[in-house]
TrEMBL record:
<dbReference type="Pfam" id="PF00982">
    <property type="entry name" value="Glyco_transf_20"/>
</dbReference>
<comment type="similarity">
    <text>Belongs to the glycosyltransferase 20 family.</text>
</comment>
<dbReference type="GO" id="GO:0005992">
    <property type="term" value="P:trehalose biosynthetic process"/>
</dbReference>
<dbReference type="InterPro" id="IPR006379">
    <property type="entry name" value="HAD-SF_hydro_IIB"/>
</dbReference>
<dbReference type="InterPro" id="IPR023214">
    <property type="entry name" value="HAD_sf"/>
</dbReference>
<dbReference type="InterPro" id="IPR036412">
    <property type="entry name" value="HAD-like_sf"/>
</dbReference>
<comment type="similarity">
    <text>In the C-terminal section; belongs to the trehalose phosphatase family.</text>
</comment>
<dbReference type="GO" id="GO:0003825">
    <property type="term" value="F:alpha,alpha-trehalose-phosphate synthase (UDP-forming) activity"/>
</dbReference>
<protein>
    <submittedName>
        <fullName>Bifunctional alpha,alpha-trehalose-phosphate synthase (UDP-forming)/trehalose-phosphatase</fullName>
    </submittedName>
</protein>
<dbReference type="GO" id="GO:0016791">
    <property type="term" value="F:phosphatase activity"/>
</dbReference>
<dbReference type="Pfam" id="PF02358">
    <property type="entry name" value="Trehalose_PPase"/>
</dbReference>
<dbReference type="InterPro" id="IPR001830">
    <property type="entry name" value="Glyco_trans_20"/>
</dbReference>
<dbReference type="InterPro" id="IPR003337">
    <property type="entry name" value="Trehalose_PPase"/>
</dbReference>
């Protein structure tokens, strides 16, 4: 009998959950002791650490393979997480996992360092197993649940889930690189994989370059329009679905590593390791799975040449190499092990002495405590990956070094190099450059080591695994948590509010009528908007207005409004209400303040890549959409602090990736009140997506209707998913007005 069946924590197999994580392996390992006792042990991985608290608090379930072939287990609860095991046969593991996943996708996605194999029977098994995972996830997910699928073994699951359960919010994270198109195009099933991934609402990658490679592949193979991180995927009904492909660099539970490193017994073990190695002046350390992507042979070659040319001596410098077993039944891995062990044996035979070993080589894994002791003992950490999605070993070494000592030598081809720029960055293919970097690390002055390690630790601790998971899920749920289409409750409310009396339909532009884009002047309303607005303008007793934070000239340019549309810009400071002229009146003192404001923001923006200034009649906006999150936060903080001293009376308004400063106070709420007065409206319909639109929702009264575009807290009573739904809503308003007018006409007859 399985332990799940025996356990008092067994769960109802028909139970459903609001958060479902799907990965090839479960967060628990199945174990059988010598006496035949069966049990489950929680895996020590960073992903489990990051998601465990969230899943406990949000009624979550984890779907995955339990690590045992040809065996079924009932769902059960382990350490507060509901576990849903997926059965796989031995043949499926051979074809789906060892075959397609690890002998086709893995080498292809790692730049063909080893040649990939393409076999149709492997692909068929991959499809079959992905469908089984998708079916289990769909059965476990409650209505409107969030499902987060992980890694290259399950790239077809998002599309399968989308087709089976369109109500779900689906995220996918790719833990390995995504290759450039020239490499990816070799895959015979290249379009099927892309289509599978595009079933997700959010696709996460380790590096910005990986997300860019994916987006370019979509453009080449499908021709779908892309803007920045957004991809517009056509739906069956003709309505486009927005998919976001963005980088979310994964990390570790940094604090738990430091806590281990501070334990006296671990520090004593580190001291003992140095003693056992003969107390060399410098210990070099490599920690890797035995994989051809890790550059272990390059590292050993460089160290061997340093010994050969006398740059280092075996008495002074020792290389410790931990190479944990990996995929030992796959041909290229068998050959790699033979190659590495032959190279180690040759160097040790040539250079080791009775008391000192050139390379201390270990082909097995160690518990975390032993690894932390090794990190503490090592003076130089060598990460020489030829291609790596992230490489968490680099971050583990940094987290452990609470003494702020040690040097990290890091391959520029590892994802970690994008963040850990104070490491000694190297090209592992350049053996001379690698040798020079090792010598530089050995001889690095203490003050430089401390300075570099302080900066590295700040980066790792500020961006730990909890921040990674929070960032991904926040982006997923805020961008896609609202179901597509028009909810029935909204349709009923629209009929009640808009079918009688004089109606003002007031609409924000960016994020409401038009998707957000990197360059504001490229924004355009989604298809169908112009016709829907015209239908409303043709109605008796209906006025339409665009209410924007943009300068009015910019609003006119991007929205191309019909002549009867009322316009308010700069949050109501500019208006064009049934006149050809734009109304605006600033006094001399306000104009002087504008000049000072411009000087400050130009100085701030000039020092931060990815930011720019938008000039408005009564203020300026600092846009940070293209900056890194930390740089954006820093730029906005600096602008606020400087201007609070120089111009303390400014109105400050924050939006999505933008902060605005105005010399005259006005809000979209003020603009909406002015429009209501101008039109004499009995009822107001207002639609908006941003924080600034909350001012407009706040002034809506009884008999009015507010519509929030997208997810997030709001004063609006109703919401739709994105700009694509807005023309449909406007069309419904026109339909209800037509129906009401026809009823009135028939009654009069």
């Amino acid at each position: 009998m399985s332990p799940a069946a025996e356990s008092p924590q067994s769960t109802d197999p028909k139970a459903t959950y609001s958060l479902v994580v799907v990965s090839n392996r479960l967060p628990v390992d199945f174990e059988v002791t010598e006496d035949g006792t069966e049990s489950w042990r929680t895996s020590p991985g960073g992903l489990v650490t990051a998601l465990q608290p969230l899943m406990r608090s949000s009624d979550g379930a984890w779907v995955g393979w339990p690590g045992v072939a040809d065996r079924s287990f009932a769902p059960f609860v382990n350490d507060g997480i509901s576990i849903v095991p997926v059965r796989l046969s031995g043949a499926e593991l051979e074809d789906y996992y060892e075959g397609f996943s690890n002998d086709t996708i893995w080498p292809l996605y790692h730049d063909v360092i080893a040649p990939p194999s393409f076999h149709r029977e492997w692909w068929e098994a991959y499809v079959r197993v992905n469908r089984r995972f998708a079916e289990e996830a769909a059965a476990a997910a409650s209505t409107g649940a969030t499902v987060w699928v992980h890694d290259y073994q399950l790239q077809l699951v998002p599309r399968m889930l989308r087709e089976a359960r369109p109500d779900l919010v689906i995220g996918f994270f790719n833990h390995i690189p995504f290759p450039p198109y020239g490499i990816y195009a070799q895959l015979p099933w290249r379009k099927q994989i892309l289509d599978g991934l595009l079933g997700a609402d959010l696709i996460g990658f380790q590096r910005a370059a990986d997300a860019g490679n994916f987006t370019r592949a979509v453009r080449r193979l499908y021709g779908y329009p892309t803007r920045g991180v957004a991809i517009d995927v056509p739906g069956h009904s003709g309505v486009h679905r927005r998919v976001v492909a963005k980088h979310f660099p994964i990390s570790i539970d940094a604090r738990s590593y430091e806590e281990l490193a501070r334990r006296p017994e671990v520090q004593e073990r580190a001291r003992q390791i140095r003693e056992d190695l003969g107390n060399p002046k410098t210990i070099l350390l490599g920690v890797d799975r035995l994989d051809y992507t890790k550059g272990i042979a390059h590292r050993i070659k460089a160290f061997g040449e340093l010994l050969e040319d006398g740059s280092v001596s075996v008495e002074d410098v020792t290389l410790v190499q931990v190479a944990s077993p990996s995929r030992e039944r796959v041909g290229p891995y068998i050959a790699l092990r033979d190659e590495i062990e032959l190279a180690v044996g040759r160097l040790n035979g040539d250079y080791s002495t009775i008391s000192h070993t050139a390379i201390s080589y270990h082909h097995h894994g160690y518990p975390r405590e032993e690894m932390v002791a090794l990190y503490l003992a090592a003076d130089v950490m060598l990460v020489t990956a030829l291609r790596d999605g992230m490489n968490l070993v680099a971050k583990e070494y940094v987290a452990v070094r609470f003494d702020r000592d040690g040097v990290l030598v890091l391959s520029e081809f590892a994802g970690a190099a994008d963040e850990l720029k104070q490491a000694v960055l190297i090209n592992p293919h350049d053996i001379d450059g690698l040798k020079a970097a090792i010598l530089r690390a050995i001889a690095m002055p203490r003050q430089e080591r401390l300075r570099r390690m302080r900066a590295l630790r700040r980066k790792v601790f500020d961006n730990d695994v909890a921040a990674w998971s929070t960032s991904f899920l926040r982006t997923l749920t805020e961008g896609a948590a609202v179901r597509p289409g028009i909810p029935d409750v909204l349709a009923t409310a629209l009929r009640d509010v808009t079918s009688t009396g004089t109606l003002l339909v007031a609409l924000d532009f960016d994020g409401t009528l038009a998707p957000h884009v990197d360059n504001p002047e490229d924004a355009r309303a989604v298809n169908g908007t112009h016709d829907a607005v015209q239908r409303l303008l043709d109605q008796d007793g209906v006025r339409v207005a665009f209410v924007s934070g943009r300068a009015l000239v910019s609003l006119q340019h991007v929205s191309q409004p019909q002549s009867d549309v009322l316009l308010t810009g700069s949050h109501g400071i500019e208006v064009q209400l049934d006149t050809p002229e734009i109304e605006l009146d600033l006094v001399a003192a306000e104009l002087e303040q504008l000049d000072t404001l411009a000087q400050v923001l130009e100085r701030v923006s000039g020092g931060v890549a990815g930011t720019w200034i938008e000039r408005k009649p009564a203020g300026l906006a600092l846009h940070t959409r293209l900056a890194t999150p930390l740089a954006a936060q820093s730029a906005q903080k600096e602008a606020r602090e400087q201007l609070s001293v120089l111009l303390p009376g400014l109105t400050v308004r924050e939006g999505k990736n933008v902060i605005e400063f105005a010399v005259r106070s006005s809000t979209k709420g003020d603009a909406l009140e002015r429009l209501r007065l101008h039109t004499g409206a009995d009822h107001v319909f207002y639609a908006g997506d941003d924080l600034t639109d909350e001012d407009a929702f706040a002034v809506l009264g009884e008999g009015d209707l507010g519509l929030k575009i997208g997810a997030g807290a709001s004063l609006a009573g109703y919401r739709v998913r994105g700009p694509d739904e807005v023309p449909l809503v406007l069309g419904m308003i026109a339909d209800f007005r037509d129906a009401a007018a026809e009823t009135t006409s028939q009654a009069g007859a």
